[in-house]
Design brief:
Elements lengths: L3 E3 H8 L3 H9 L6 E2 L7 E4 H13 L27 H14 L6 E3 H8 L3 H9 L6 E3 L2 E5 H8 L2 H4 L5 H37 L1
Antiparallel strand pairs: 1-3, 2-3, 4-6, 5-6
Helix pairs in contact: 5-6
């Protein structure tokens, strides 16, 4: 039988407010089941709760994007959505390459703008400033997809995301990173348990 925690038990275990716990659940920061009941709505595997608490206690910058959101102060200053490091920039670029793999190598400026929530005029401005290279075929102007991805994964862009669409991309990338780390932790745990069982035998 699987060992679960209720939402209330999880909140006490993590020492967080009910509001913050609900936000973490609703935004899928913690793997869980939604029972659909008015009370004891959430069920979380104790193993998942332990992994999450370990990250809260030991991982620098973990949940930094939520700092101040659940305090009683009327004003708060959110930290960047993502820590802008060379590693994160490269990882985000690679993730965008996979996300947009089906798109053509030459993107119409209208398409590029829609991908990140900009207006086409802002893309044209980047072309005029030689930040991006553009080529016009008929009435449509195109930019290289690889160049556009590199620009959107640059430190200056990641440190100051302005559109909701771009912020959504960053959040989706971070969730993917979280799931990959979580899976890796589980693989390591299973491997360690397998080794221990082998030694006992």
């Amino acid at each position: 039988m699987k060992d679960y925690m209720s939402g209330s038990e999880l909140r006490q275990y993590l020492h967080i407010s009910t509001r913050k716990m609900k936000y973490l659940m609703d935004h899928n920061y913690i793997p869980h089941e939604n029972t659909g009941h008015a009370t004891h709505k959430y069920r979380v595997l104790k193993e998942d709760a332990e992994i999450f608490k370990y990250r809260m206690d030991n991982e620098v910058g973990f949940l930094a994007e939520l700092n101040g959101m659940f305090s009683n102060r009327t004003e708060w200053h959110p930290r960047p959505l993502i820590e802008v490091t060379e590693e994160n920039c490269n990882a985000f670029r690679q993730w965008l390459e996979k996300e947009w793999a089906e798109l053509p190598d030459a993107l119409p400026t209208q398409t590029a703008a829609e991908l990140v929530g900009h207006n086409p005029q802002s893309i044209h401005k980047l072309i005029k400033e030689n930040v991006l290279h553009g080529i016009k075929i008929g009435a449509v102007q195109y930019i290289p997809k690889t160049e556009f991805i590199s620009y959107m994964a640059s430190p200056q862009k990641l440190s100051n995301p302005r559109t909701d669409k771009y912020k959504e991309l960053i959040r989706a990338f971070k969730k993917r990173q979280y799931r990959e780390r979580e899976n890796e932790q589980r693989r390591c745990k299973r491997k360690m348990e397998g080794s221990e069982n082998g030694e006992r035998e």
